[in-house]
Amino acid sequence: MIQFLSVTKVYDSGIYALQELNFEVQDGEFVFIVGPSGSGKTTIVKLLIREELPSSGQIYFDDDDITRYNTKKVYKLRRKIGVIFQDFKLINELTAYENIAFVMEAAGQKDKEIKENVPYLLDIVGLSNRMDAFPCQLSGGEKQRVAIARAMANNPKLLIADEPTGNLDPDTSWDIAQILYKINNWGTTVLMSTHGSDIVNSMHKRVVRLKSGVMIRDDFKGSYEEIDDYSMRIIKSQEDDSKEKITLYNSIPKGESDSKNTSSKTQPKSKKLTQGTGKISFSTKSKRAQPQVQIKEKPAKTDIETKIINLVKD
Ligand code: ADP
Ligand code: MG
């Protein structure tokens, strides 16, 4: 899906934000981009959404060199990419519902689709009960949930999260990471930049590590270098029975709704989410637990569920 070929970005200041960067991301991957502040993470995001052009090198999105795109093509490209930021970037004058409806309208979606899909998107992020709240009435975690729902509103192929947990406490950060994990499991490719190691160590996903604009590592099984014994035991125990679960997971039809507001600290710490023929449970009992899937009898799909399955799929 994404290819960076010898990408170098030098800003006007003469700073090399990225140097000869080469990496590929396949459809459906979850990739962490980690590195200290100033290492070039946001520059990667800006290059992908064509907010910046590289000084040299090529960037492919779906086998097309996006560095050659004209304005019209850039606009189309941005429709395929949802982005969330550390500072949420919600419109303060609009409610949660309106923040999402706004981008759907801008993309030409019909009123009927908007009315049906906005509540569903808010449900996915566990915020259906705060539809009419303005950003100033929401906590940081809730604002980021709205931002995720908005980023998913036009059913993007790629979701980029640029330090989405940078302003959040560890529990809330974990909830946000779990939502991104869930979205990725539905088939959306996710690129998440962060400089926190906790979530990265816990999620067992690919990690691209930057330092001063240079890629210094590309680990396909996540970074365990700083992992503690407790986390390692959990990961090991999950690996032991993961094969069967992963096969099952892949066979589950897409489409799911999380009807609970998972941000609330008063919620039980175990979150059960139904999806198609399986049951996914996201346990936050341990911050290092991984989503798991168990067989459960198939629930009947409501109209809105069927709609969202189509929305979340292509
Ligand atoms: P990160 O997101 O990892 O903190 P950035 O990609 O934002 O890193 O920045 C990489 C480097 O490029 C930093 O040294 C930063 O100061 C510099 N930089 C970023 N944006 C600009 C800009 N618009 N003009 C000049 N220098 C910039
Ligand atoms: Mg940044």
Give the gist of this structure:
This protein is of the alpha/beta class and 314 residues long.
Order of helices and strands: EEEHEEHEHHHEHEHEEHHEEEEH
Helix/strand class: alpha/beta
Largest sheet: 6 strands, mixed
Instruction: Let me know the average pLDDT.
Output: 78
Oligomer kind: single chain
Low-confidence stretches: 226-231, 241-314
Instruction: Report strand order across the widest sheet.
Output: 6-7-8-3-9-10
- Percent strand equals 15-25%
The unique ligands bound to this protein are:
adenosine-5'-diphosphate, magnesium ion
What is the helical fraction, as a range of percent? 25-40%
Report how far the terminal alpha carbons are from each other: 15 Å
- The number of distinct helices, counting runs of at least 4 residues, comes to 10
What is the CA-based Rg, rounded?
Answer: 19 Å
Shape: globular
- Total count of strands: 14
What does this structure look like?
With 314 residues, the protein is of the alpha/beta class. The chain has a domain at 230-314. It is 35% helix and 25% strand. The chain has helices spanning 41-48, 71-79, 96-106, 111-124, 140-151, 170-185, 197-203, 229-240, 242-251, 303-312; strands at residues 2-10, 16-25, 30-34, 56-61, 64-65, 81-85, 158-162, 189-194, 206-211, 214-219, 256-257, 270-275, 278-283, 292-295. α3 packs across α4, α4 (111-124) packs across α5 and α4 (111-124) crosses α10 (303-312). The radius of gyration is 19 Å and the shape is globular. It binds adenosine-5'-diphosphate and magnesium ion (MG). Magnesium ion binds next to α1.
